[in-house]
User: Fold these one by one.
Assistant:
Number 1:
Amino acid sequence: MTAIPNRKLIVAIDGPAGAGKSTIAARLARKLGYVNLETGAMYRALALKAIEWDVSFDDEAALAKLASDSRIQLEPTHSGNRVLLDGRDVTARVRETDVTEGASRVSVYPKVREWMVARQQEMGAGGGVVMEGRDIGTKVFPNADVKVFLDADPVVREQRRLQQQNLRGSEAEASVAELRERDRRDRTRAQSPLAAAPDALVLDSTSLSEDEVLQRVEDLVNRKLLQQN
Ligand code: DC
């Protein structure tokens, strides 16, 4: 008798900026042999295109049209996702401050989100993905096999970001202000505000090490895989 291979799961990891989603999602995907998709990078790519094409962050219809005229691709690599905008590698550019702020602004619009969610559903439909973002467990894959909401104390999240970016003085202050504003916008927008799905495992990483967080998520994935057999 031939063994039936395990169905490849859809793992959703949501949470605010600085909670450690990217690191956990990348490590988990590597361990499982899955693909890690960072959906925030898609909102970032659209924000970059809006900057380049001089489309206002206040114009929902123009932003939605811009999205549907664009090709935004995520290519998983060993060191995170490569981001392609209309075939051009914009991986580093989309991490800059103006694009980061823009991503949070374009992501409030229902028409933009509709387009993004449809693309993300296509990308993850076959399973074998660890998809991270803000609305993966609530909106993109409400039936995801595993849902994790990763949170941490805002002060700790800010400190982690400052360390990652090696910022001090006025640059550090600006970065903290930007994170707070982005948090506020992500949590209060009308469409798919950042919130844990009712059936998500909520993990507060404030006083957990990265390894401890990863272990808990892995335990959950393993339980799910066992249930299939
Ligand atoms: O995860 P990130 O910091 O790269 O995300 C950039 C912005 O995109 C963030 O401020 C909110 C938005 N976003 C979203 O609304 N939904 C997602 N699934 C991912 C990101």
Number 2:
Amino acid sequence: MLRAALRRLGPGPGPRLCARGSRGCRDDGGGGGGGGGEGEGRSGRACFTTPIFYVNAAPHIGHLYSALLADALARYRRLRAGPPVRLSTGTDEHGLKIQQAAAAAGVAPAELCDRVSAQFRALFRAAGVSVTDFLRTTEARHQRAVHHFWGALRARGLLSKGLYEGWYCASDECFLPEAKVTWRPGPGGERRPVALDSGHPVCWTAEQNYIFRLSQFREPLRRWLRDDPRAICPDPFRRTVLQWLEEDLPDLSVSRGNSHLYWGLQVPGDPTQTIYVWVDALVNYLTVLGYPDSEHAAWWPATHHVIGKDILRFHAIYWPALLLGAGMSPPHRIYVHSHWTVHGQKMSKSLGNVVDPSTCLERFTVDGFRYFLLRQGVPNWDCDYYEKKVVKLLDAELADALGGLLNRCTAASLNPTGIFPEFCTSCFPCVRGVTSKAQPEDYALVRAVSALPLQVEHYYENFQIYKALEAVSSCVRQTNSFVQRNAPWKLNRENLSDARWLDTILHVTLECLRVFGMLLQPVTPTLADRLLSRLNISETERGLQDINFLPRYHGQPCPFEGRRLGPDTGLLFPRLDKTRARATKIS
Ligand code: MSP
């Protein structure tokens, strides 16, 4: 039943697209397969991506958040029986920003890249991000992909050389129109031009560059967003992009003279020019799929990008336009999230308030910190980080509500045999009658937990992982009330009727816990494993198709009834007391 319902909720075929401004709609370099705008409809494959991270500074919690969102989406998708799911991430190592950061640190760019890239890799490993490919843009396979992609644009007549001038912001790695530049006092008091949005310094640049005919993609991009209203999610970000498409859409400079930008990929056949770092970086999403070899065609465009709001224009305008220009389809989905602030302030090195994610993982445990970021992070708006909030949330929801529930209902005092107890259909008949001990609120619990998997599915589809967690948490609370209300500890096991009802209360509670454990797997994989192992649910019984909540209530056999519970009787999530939640290192 759930399977059919999940199929109903599942994504339909992806957009059918064709760059009418460009020629044809075949995936360049591909040999058929998933190309030509089929999205993920035909193969059911999915590749989730994080942005690739700049290596000018160490990772912070905002970076980890981006990666965890993509990880939770990928892990959730893997719970569905189906084709393999990929998750790619990596580091963005070329460009002026890295060149300048290396110079400021007095090291060679390659050395800085090796060091910081390793930090990102280690962080993601420590945080349980289920990466299938970690790409560095300095790898040879990536250079091959970028050069091939460049060749596809050139072959389609979309690149030309000419004088390009404008304000360039090295920190944001982009040109800015006059209206997006303002003058503010610099550190020495002198007024200097800065980017209006980010406040980063900008510089006037005038040079011969390769220029991409971005302006001719306005209509194809609009059509893409009109035809697939779910292409960019949440919807306010799609509307922002549509608004941008109403404004001026100038052609885009896609190279820099290598006299001032040497740290990057050379334009094929022109040693005087370096490829613009954003073109280089965006192609990473193809490199990880094996582009330009034909294998990529089985995966593209079944790709779901997770990005922060600051890089929306690059992903929702430049990238789809470049793809259309190269004869390929835009990505299947772009999920956009907002930013984390710290005590109400933007995180920045100069303010000294950058929160180190590794310290947080240690302090709050991996699952605890994953749960916090994904439960509290709301993609539509910025979220504020402070430690008290982490401790309060984790103690309330994971230690007390969920852990307490498991502890109570598996304790030897209530369940001396350590066996998954029997459900009594006359105590809890599916139609309430004279033999029924269950009250209307108990029926409400069964309804709520039965509806939960579909609700969660809907929230994942809509990039609302925080709502999925909120829904699980609300059901956990409801289950605790069920136990509290029916007070199994007051029942007498010596009395047959009491014993049956006691076992039924425990059976229902353990079934609820099983559902919670299964649905929490994408966010708190270790904790969910511990919970499910305590219930002795084997690894082959943990997919979405296995949920089938409370089958005995519906007159079906329950495979868990009578099974011995798992041996681990430890606490599911120990409370984070004050000593454990001492100040997190601020770097
Ligand atoms: N290198 C580019 C992305 C290229 S993708 C082809 C880049 N790198 S970044 O390191 O600056 O940012 C990576 C991601 O981290 C972005 O999605 C960005 O939005 C996110 N975050 C950076 N600061 C953040 C917060 N304070 N909060 C949440 N996410 C934030 O941009």
